[in-house]
Amino acid sequence: MWQNEGTGSSLLGLLPIVAIFLVFYFLLILPNQKRQKKLQQMLANLKNGDRVVTSGGIHGTIVGMRDEYVVLRVPPEQVKLEVARNSITTVHLPTEEQS
Q1: Count of Cβ atoms closer than 10 Å to residue 33 Cβ
Q2: Could you tell me which residues are beta bridge partners of residue 91?
Q3: 93 contacts 47 by C-beta, under 8 angstroms
Q4: What's the predicted TM-score (pTM) here?
């Protein structure tokens, strides 16, 4: 008589674990995957003349590119730095000049 009730309660015991996994997936994993995809697309579309910011906070303009590295020109002395392509976090879009 008690044996039949045990199988139903084990399925109900797994339900909270499945619900927690789904919440983590939709709140943490999925947005992180979208962010990574957007970052990879941005890095693939880099070109000479783009103004960028690195993860270390260096602002510069791309003047040369290699497979894994990017050469940045950094003001005010127009110093050229070679940084890893993966260290670039932001590309500044050029602002339109207002007449």
Answers
A1: 11
A2: 52
A3: no
A4: 0.68
